[in-house]
Amino acid sequence: MGNYAGKWVAMMAGAALALGATAAGAQVLKVGLIPSEDSRAMLAQSKDILDAVEKNLGMKVQGFVATDYNGVIEALRAKHLDIAYLGPFSYVLATTVTPVEAFVIAETARAGRTYYHSQIISLKTAGIKDLNDLKGRNFAFVDPASTSGYAFPLAGLLKAGIEPKRDFKTVIFTGAHDANAVAVANGKVDAATIADRILDAAIAKGHIKAEQIHVVWRSAPIPESPMVWRKDLSDDLKNKVKTAFLAVKDLNWSDQGKLNGFRETSDAAYDVVRETAKLANIDLKKQK
Predict the structure, then answer these.
(1) pTM
(2) What is the pLDDT of residue 246?
(3) What pLDDT, on a 0 to 100 scale, did the predictor assign at position 211?
(4) Among 37, 164, 167, 236, which has the highest number of CB atoms less than 10 A from its own CB?
Protein backbone atom coordinates (compact mmCIF):
# COMPACT_ATOMS: atom_id res chain seq x y z
CA MET A 1 0.00 0.00 0.00
CA GLY A 2 2.91 2.29 0.81
CA ASN A 3 4.42 1.76 -2.66
CA TYR A 4 1.08 2.48 -4.32
CA ALA A 5 0.65 5.65 -2.30
CA GLY A 6 4.17 6.74 -3.17
CA LYS A 7 3.55 6.19 -6.88
CA TRP A 8 0.26 8.08 -6.65
CA VAL A 9 1.94 11.07 -4.96
CA ALA A 10 4.71 11.03 -7.56
CA MET A 11 2.14 10.87 -10.37
CA MET A 12 0.15 13.77 -8.95
CA ALA A 13 3.31 15.80 -8.42
CA GLY A 14 4.27 15.17 -12.03
CA ALA A 15 0.81 16.21 -13.19
CA ALA A 16 1.04 19.38 -11.13
CA LEU A 17 4.40 20.22 -12.70
CA ALA A 18 2.97 19.59 -16.16
CA LEU A 19 0.01 21.84 -15.45
CA GLY A 20 2.36 24.50 -14.12
CA ALA A 21 4.42 24.31 -17.29
CA THR A 22 1.28 24.58 -19.39
CA ALA A 23 0.12 27.59 -17.43
CA ALA A 24 3.50 29.22 -17.73
CA GLY A 25 3.50 28.49 -21.45
CA ALA A 26 0.15 30.24 -21.77
CA GLN A 27 1.60 33.37 -20.16
CA VAL A 28 5.03 33.51 -21.83
CA LEU A 29 5.78 33.14 -25.53
CA LYS A 30 9.34 31.82 -25.84
CA VAL A 31 11.11 32.93 -29.02
CA GLY A 32 14.34 31.40 -30.31
CA LEU A 33 16.86 33.26 -32.49
CA ILE A 34 19.66 31.71 -34.55
CA PRO A 35 23.10 33.24 -33.80
CA SER A 36 23.68 34.71 -37.28
CA GLU A 37 25.49 37.50 -35.43
CA ASP A 38 26.89 37.82 -31.90
CA SER A 39 24.23 36.63 -29.44
CA ARG A 40 24.10 39.91 -27.52
CA ALA A 41 23.72 41.83 -30.77
CA MET A 42 20.95 39.48 -31.93
CA LEU A 43 18.98 40.06 -28.73
CA ALA A 44 19.58 43.81 -28.75
CA GLN A 45 18.55 44.13 -32.40
CA SER A 46 15.44 42.02 -31.83
CA LYS A 47 14.25 43.86 -28.73
CA ASP A 48 12.06 46.47 -30.43
CA ILE A 49 10.09 43.91 -32.42
CA LEU A 50 9.81 41.41 -29.57
CA ASP A 51 8.52 44.27 -27.38
CA ALA A 52 6.02 45.23 -30.10
CA VAL A 53 4.85 41.62 -30.47
CA GLU A 54 4.46 41.40 -26.70
CA LYS A 55 2.31 44.54 -26.72
CA ASN A 56 0.23 43.38 -29.70
CA LEU A 57 -0.17 39.91 -28.24
CA GLY A 58 -0.93 40.98 -24.68
CA MET A 59 1.43 38.26 -23.49
CA LYS A 60 4.97 38.16 -22.13
CA VAL A 61 7.59 37.44 -24.83
CA GLN A 62 11.08 36.11 -24.03
CA GLY A 63 13.93 35.96 -26.56
CA PHE A 64 16.60 33.27 -26.53
CA VAL A 65 19.78 32.89 -28.65
CA ALA A 66 21.41 29.45 -28.85
CA THR A 67 25.15 28.87 -29.18
CA ASP A 68 24.62 27.49 -32.69
CA TYR A 69 21.86 27.00 -35.25
CA ASN A 70 21.17 23.43 -34.19
CA GLY A 71 20.60 24.61 -30.63
CA VAL A 72 17.46 26.47 -31.72
CA ILE A 73 16.20 23.44 -33.64
CA GLU A 74 16.75 21.19 -30.62
CA ALA A 75 15.00 23.69 -28.33
CA LEU A 76 11.97 23.62 -30.65
CA ARG A 77 12.01 19.84 -30.69
CA ALA A 78 12.17 19.73 -26.88
CA LYS A 79 9.32 22.27 -26.73
CA HIS A 80 11.47 24.74 -24.81
CA LEU A 81 10.53 27.28 -27.50
CA ASP A 82 7.14 28.15 -28.98
CA ILE A 83 8.31 30.01 -32.08
CA ALA A 84 11.68 30.78 -33.60
CA TYR A 85 13.55 32.87 -36.14
CA LEU A 86 15.40 30.37 -38.34
CA GLY A 87 17.47 30.67 -41.46
CA PRO A 88 15.86 29.14 -44.56
CA PHE A 89 18.11 26.07 -44.46
CA SER A 90 17.91 25.61 -40.69
CA TYR A 91 14.12 25.78 -41.11
CA VAL A 92 14.20 23.02 -43.73
CA LEU A 93 16.42 20.97 -41.39
CA ALA A 94 14.02 21.61 -38.51
CA THR A 95 11.07 20.24 -40.51
CA THR A 96 12.88 16.91 -40.81
CA VAL A 97 13.13 16.41 -37.04
CA THR A 98 10.14 18.19 -35.49
CA PRO A 99 6.70 19.49 -36.60
CA VAL A 100 7.30 23.21 -37.28
CA GLU A 101 5.91 25.55 -39.92
CA ALA A 102 6.96 28.92 -41.37
CA PHE A 103 4.28 31.58 -40.95
CA VAL A 104 5.74 35.05 -41.59
CA ILE A 105 8.75 36.53 -43.33
CA ALA A 106 10.33 39.96 -42.99
CA GLU A 107 10.33 42.65 -45.67
CA THR A 108 13.44 44.79 -45.32
CA ALA A 109 13.06 48.54 -45.59
CA ARG A 110 16.30 49.23 -47.46
CA ALA A 111 15.54 46.92 -50.37
CA GLY A 112 11.79 46.47 -49.94
CA ARG A 113 12.18 42.75 -50.53
CA THR A 114 11.66 39.39 -48.84
CA TYR A 115 14.82 37.75 -50.19
CA TYR A 116 18.58 38.13 -49.89
CA HIS A 117 21.80 36.72 -51.37
CA SER A 118 24.70 34.57 -50.25
CA GLN A 119 28.16 35.83 -51.12
CA ILE A 120 31.75 34.65 -50.99
CA ILE A 121 34.08 37.52 -50.21
CA SER A 122 37.82 38.08 -50.02
CA LEU A 123 40.15 41.03 -49.62
CA LYS A 124 41.14 42.60 -52.93
CA THR A 125 44.77 42.21 -51.87
CA ALA A 126 44.34 38.41 -51.77
CA GLY A 127 44.27 38.32 -55.57
CA ILE A 128 41.20 36.09 -55.75
CA LYS A 129 39.35 36.99 -58.93
CA ASP A 130 36.99 34.04 -59.30
CA LEU A 131 36.05 30.71 -57.71
CA ASN A 132 38.99 28.86 -59.27
CA ASP A 133 41.39 31.20 -57.46
CA LEU A 134 40.05 29.82 -54.15
CA LYS A 135 41.91 26.55 -54.64
CA GLY A 136 44.65 26.03 -52.08
CA ARG A 137 43.29 28.86 -49.90
CA ASN A 138 42.00 29.06 -46.33
CA PHE A 139 38.20 29.27 -46.32
CA ALA A 140 35.42 29.91 -43.80
CA PHE A 141 31.80 28.81 -43.82
CA VAL A 142 29.38 30.00 -41.12
CA ASP A 143 27.54 26.93 -39.78
CA PRO A 144 26.54 23.58 -41.33
CA ALA A 145 22.88 24.60 -40.84
CA SER A 146 23.31 28.05 -42.40
CA THR A 147 21.60 28.84 -45.70
CA SER A 148 23.77 31.62 -47.10
CA GLY A 149 26.74 30.67 -44.93
CA TYR A 150 26.91 27.05 -46.13
CA ALA A 151 24.20 25.37 -48.25
CA PHE A 152 23.98 27.88 -51.12
CA PRO A 153 27.70 28.67 -51.44
CA LEU A 154 28.54 24.94 -51.20
CA ALA A 155 26.15 24.29 -54.09
CA GLY A 156 27.81 27.11 -56.02
CA LEU A 157 31.29 25.74 -55.38
CA LEU A 158 30.34 22.19 -56.36
CA LYS A 159 28.68 23.46 -59.54
CA ALA A 160 31.99 25.12 -60.42
CA GLY A 161 33.81 21.82 -59.85
CA ILE A 162 35.30 22.81 -56.51
CA GLU A 163 35.16 20.38 -53.60
CA PRO A 164 36.06 22.27 -50.38
CA LYS A 165 37.62 19.31 -48.52
CA ARG A 166 39.76 18.48 -51.54
CA ASP A 167 40.54 21.89 -52.98
CA PHE A 168 40.88 24.26 -50.01
CA LYS A 169 43.94 24.37 -47.77
CA THR A 170 41.78 24.64 -44.65
CA VAL A 171 38.04 24.91 -43.99
CA ILE A 172 36.60 26.33 -40.77
CA PHE A 173 33.15 27.16 -39.42
CA THR A 174 33.09 30.41 -37.42
CA GLY A 175 29.46 30.14 -36.21
CA ALA A 176 28.33 33.64 -37.30
CA HIS A 177 28.26 35.74 -40.46
CA ASP A 178 29.84 38.79 -38.85
CA ALA A 179 32.64 36.55 -37.57
CA ASN A 180 33.33 35.62 -41.19
CA ALA A 181 33.67 39.28 -42.12
CA VAL A 182 36.16 39.77 -39.28
CA ALA A 183 38.06 36.61 -40.26
CA VAL A 184 38.54 37.97 -43.80
CA ALA A 185 39.41 41.47 -42.59
CA ASN A 186 42.04 40.12 -40.17
CA GLY A 187 43.54 37.68 -42.66
CA LYS A 188 42.54 34.61 -40.66
CA VAL A 189 41.07 33.20 -43.87
CA ASP A 190 41.49 34.14 -47.51
CA ALA A 191 37.77 34.00 -48.29
CA ALA A 192 34.48 33.41 -46.51
CA THR A 193 30.74 33.10 -46.99
CA ILE A 194 28.36 35.79 -45.78
CA ALA A 195 24.80 37.05 -46.33
CA ASP A 196 24.79 40.30 -48.29
CA ARG A 197 22.73 42.16 -45.70
CA ILE A 198 24.98 41.04 -42.85
CA LEU A 199 28.01 42.17 -44.86
CA ASP A 200 26.35 45.59 -45.15
CA ALA A 201 25.88 45.61 -41.36
CA ALA A 202 29.50 44.53 -40.78
CA ILE A 203 30.70 47.40 -42.96
CA ALA A 204 28.45 49.86 -41.09
CA LYS A 205 29.89 48.62 -37.77
CA GLY A 206 33.46 49.02 -39.01
CA HIS A 207 34.29 45.29 -38.92
CA ILE A 208 35.53 45.48 -42.52
CA LYS A 209 35.91 48.27 -45.08
CA ALA A 210 33.82 48.20 -48.26
CA GLU A 211 36.73 49.33 -50.43
CA GLN A 212 38.78 46.32 -49.24
CA ILE A 213 36.28 43.72 -50.39
CA HIS A 214 36.01 41.73 -53.59
CA VAL A 215 32.80 39.72 -54.06
CA VAL A 216 34.02 36.47 -55.59
CA TRP A 217 30.59 34.87 -55.98
CA ARG A 218 26.93 35.78 -55.42
CA SER A 219 23.93 33.47 -55.26
CA ALA A 220 20.50 33.68 -56.84
CA PRO A 221 17.82 35.19 -54.54
CA ILE A 222 17.11 33.23 -51.35
CA PRO A 223 13.75 33.56 -49.53
CA GLU A 224 14.25 35.49 -46.29
CA SER A 225 14.62 33.83 -42.91
CA PRO A 226 11.17 32.85 -41.60
CA MET A 227 9.49 32.97 -38.24
CA VAL A 228 8.26 29.46 -37.48
CA TRP A 229 5.96 27.96 -34.90
CA ARG A 230 5.51 24.54 -33.43
CA LYS A 231 2.52 22.96 -35.14
CA ASP A 232 1.14 21.73 -31.82
CA LEU A 233 0.41 25.26 -30.59
CA SER A 234 -3.30 25.96 -30.40
CA ASP A 235 -4.95 27.50 -33.46
CA ASP A 236 -6.05 30.41 -31.29
CA LEU A 237 -2.48 31.15 -30.19
CA LYS A 238 -1.17 30.77 -33.75
CA ASN A 239 -3.71 33.29 -35.05
CA LYS A 240 -2.86 35.73 -32.30
CA VAL A 241 0.89 35.36 -32.86
CA LYS A 242 0.59 35.83 -36.63
CA THR A 243 -1.65 38.88 -36.17
CA ALA A 244 0.82 40.33 -33.68
CA PHE A 245 3.72 40.00 -36.15
CA LEU A 246 1.74 41.31 -39.13
CA ALA A 247 0.86 44.43 -37.14
CA VAL A 248 4.55 45.32 -36.63
CA LYS A 249 5.78 48.16 -38.85
CA ASP A 250 8.98 50.18 -39.31
CA LEU A 251 11.15 48.61 -36.60
CA ASN A 252 14.60 46.99 -36.48
CA TRP A 253 14.70 43.21 -36.56
CA SER A 254 17.51 40.82 -35.73
CA ASP A 255 20.25 40.80 -38.40
CA GLN A 256 17.92 42.24 -41.06
CA GLY A 257 17.96 45.87 -39.95
CA LYS A 258 14.98 48.18 -40.48
CA LEU A 259 11.83 46.47 -41.73
CA ASN A 260 8.74 47.66 -43.53
CA GLY A 261 7.00 44.84 -41.70
CA PHE A 262 6.21 41.12 -41.93
CA ARG A 263 4.40 39.24 -44.69
CA GLU A 264 2.72 35.84 -44.57
CA THR A 265 4.69 32.86 -45.91
CA SER A 266 4.37 29.07 -46.06
CA ASP A 267 6.46 25.91 -46.09
CA ALA A 268 6.29 25.69 -49.90
CA ALA A 269 8.27 28.92 -50.23
CA TYR A 270 11.34 27.00 -49.02
CA ASP A 271 11.26 24.22 -51.61
CA VAL A 272 14.03 26.11 -53.45
CA VAL A 273 16.20 25.60 -50.37
CA ARG A 274 15.47 21.86 -50.38
CA GLU A 275 16.40 21.72 -54.08
CA THR A 276 19.67 23.57 -53.38
CA ALA A 277 20.51 21.13 -50.59
CA LYS A 278 20.14 18.30 -53.13
CA LEU A 279 22.45 20.10 -55.58
CA ALA A 280 24.99 20.47 -52.77
CA ASN A 281 24.67 16.74 -51.98
CA ILE A 282 23.58 17.58 -48.45
CA ASP A 283 21.76 14.73 -46.74
CA LEU A 284 19.21 16.52 -44.56
CA LYS A 285 18.82 13.47 -42.33
CA LYS A 286 22.55 13.48 -41.51
CA GLN A 287 22.47 17.17 -40.66
CA LYS A 288 20.33 16.59 -37.56
Answers:
(1) 0.80
(2) 97
(3) 97
(4) 37
SS3 assignment, position 32: strand
Residues 113 and 106: their CA atoms lie apart, in Å, by 8
Q: How far apart are CA 64 and CA 231, in angstroms?
A: 19
**What tens digit of pLDDT does each residue of 81-118 get?**
999 999 999 999 999 999 999 999 999 887 788 999 99
CA distance 63 to 109: 23
Listing from the earlier edge strand, what are the strands of the sheet with 83-85? 60-65, 28-33, 83-85, 226-230, 100-108, 257-264, 252-253
Cα gap 217→26, rounded to integer Å: 46
- The overall average pLDDT reported for the chain is 88
Q: Phi then psi for 121, rounded to 5 degrees?
A: -120, 155
Q: Under DSSP, is residue 165 helix (H, G, I), strand (E, B) or coil? A: helix
Is residue 191 within 8 A of residue 137, CB to CB? The reply is: yes
Burial of residue 274 (CB within 10 Å: 0-12, 13-18, 19+) is middle
Task: Return left, alpha or beta for 281; rule: phi > 0 is left, psi -120 to 50 is alpha, else beta.
Answer: left
Determine how many CB atoms are found less than 10 A away from the CB of residue 237.
18
Who contacts 67 (Cβ-Cβ below 8 Å, separation ≥6)? 35, 39, 175
pLDDT digits 0-9 by tens, 248-269 = 998 988 778 889 999 999 999 9
Residue 221 is classified by DSSP as: P
Element (H, E) at 151: none
